[in-house]
């Protein structure tokens, strides 16, 4: 196996649960899958594998079916390692670090939003202080909540559980929130840029007696967008109203606020904006009109879809493939979009 993949397999051996090398030539290592969390019933089952193929490492899980090369596997489980891997790969090929520097004329709109290095970078990302949902036991309330929402196991690594939310926030931004004796947990949906930097997050309460969603920005100059770390703007991509809804789509981001502001998005001609299915909600209708006025494509839900949002559609038994087909067949723009919106708002 090539020296760089072998190096990072060795680093992962100290970080992944039940990691065990079965063979060095060809390289074969077994571990519990960090993406899906592996078996619900047995903590000793390990169905994730790093295997050698054509001198490269590949990762495969026999439980969730996740399949990645070493580069994308690191991107999925550890952004800091992923960034180091990119540099090491380039250096192995005899290239210089300057290949990562872009000329001004090549800079895209999002890349112009340069994140200021926050103070916590010296100590590591604040996300290291809390656990990914994919790392929690299946009996944990955070895991149960996500499972009940039917969020795919392959996407649960993008979500985190903060047991004491206010305390965690204040460790990032001192005195941002009041100190609470009964500090409560929240589900964390981090805003991460292409370089793996955390610049904000959306947090959902597990209780009905608290403010449901809170958005905290570490860098106020960055857009309130979830999913920038892995969206492909060169293909059709979906812009969902909330982070959880975006996890049910194959290439998506979510706008925290969902006001039709495309700040931070690229190639908006490839974007499809998806709002909640609430035709009587004047605020949502106004946002849809704003997008259509700007020439964006908007999904206008058909009459036979009765659920109010993407997650509810999934919970009703619709598959992801069928969901995307519904969206694609009901995407409009321009005058046609305005006409369809007029019909929809009368539903």
Notes on the structure:
The protein has 347 residues and is of the alpha+beta class. The chain has three domains: 3-100, DNA Primase, Chain A (Alpha-Beta Complex), CATH 3.90.580; 128-222, DNA primase, catalytic core, N-terminal domain (DNA primase DNAg catalytic core, N-terminal domain, Alpha-Beta Complex), CATH 3.90.980; 226-344, Dna Topoisomerase Vi A Subunit, Chain: A, domain 2 (3-Layer(aba) Sandwich). Mean pLDDT is 87; it is low at 95-108 and 114-122. Helix 7 runs antiparallel to helix 10. Strands 11-13-12-14-15-16 form a six-stranded mixed beta sheet. Strands 1-2-3-4-5 form a five-stranded antiparallel beta sheet. The protein has a five-stranded antiparallel beta sheet with strand order 6-7-8-9-10. A hairpin with a 5-residue loop joins strand 8 and strand 9. The N and C termini lie far apart (60 Å). The protein is built from ten helices and 16 strands.
């Amino acid at each position: 196996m090539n020296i760089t993949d072998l190096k990072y397999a060795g680093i992962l051996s100290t970080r992944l649960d039940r990691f065990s090398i079965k063979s060095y030539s060809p390289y074969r290592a077994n571990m519990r899958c960090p993406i899906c969390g592996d078996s619900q019933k047995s903590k000793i089952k390990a169905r994730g594998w790093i295997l050698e193929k054509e001198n490269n490492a590949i990762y495969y899980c026999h439980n969730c079916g996740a399949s990645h090369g070493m580069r994308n596997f690191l991107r999925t489980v550890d952004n800091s390692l992923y960034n180091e891997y990119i540099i090491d790969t380039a250096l192995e090929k005899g290239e210089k670090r300057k290949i990562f520097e872009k000329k001004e004329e090549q800079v895209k709109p999002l890349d112009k939003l340069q994140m200021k290095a926050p103070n916590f970078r010296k100590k590591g990302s604040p996300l290291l202080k809390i656990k990914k949902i994919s790392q929690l036991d299946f009996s944990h309330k955070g895991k149960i909540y996500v499972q009940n929402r039917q969020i795919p196991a392959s996407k649960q690594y993008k979500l985190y559980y903060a047991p004491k939310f206010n305390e965690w926030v204040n460790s990032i931004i001192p005195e941002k929130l009041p100190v609470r004796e009964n500090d409560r947990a929240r589900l964390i949906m981090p805003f991460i840029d292409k370089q793996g930097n955390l610049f904000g997050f959306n947090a959902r309460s597990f209780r009905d007696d608290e403010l449901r969603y809170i958005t905290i920005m570490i860098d106020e100059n960055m857009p309130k967008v979830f999913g920038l770390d892995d969206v492909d703007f060169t293909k059709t991509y979906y812009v969902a109203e909330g982070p959880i809804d975006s996890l049910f789509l194959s290439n998506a981001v979510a706008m925290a606020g969902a006001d039709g502001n495309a700040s931070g998005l690229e190639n908006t001609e490839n974007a499809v904006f998806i709002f909640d299915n609430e035709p009587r909600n004047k605020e949502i209708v106004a946002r849809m009109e704003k997008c259509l006025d700007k020439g964006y494509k908007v999904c206008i839900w058909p009459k036979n879809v009765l659920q109010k949002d993407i997650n509810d559609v999934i919970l009703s038994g619709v598959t992801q493939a069928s969901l995307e087909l519904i969206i694609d067949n009901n995407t409009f723009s321009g005058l046609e979009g305005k006409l369809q919106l007029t019909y929809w708002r009368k539903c």
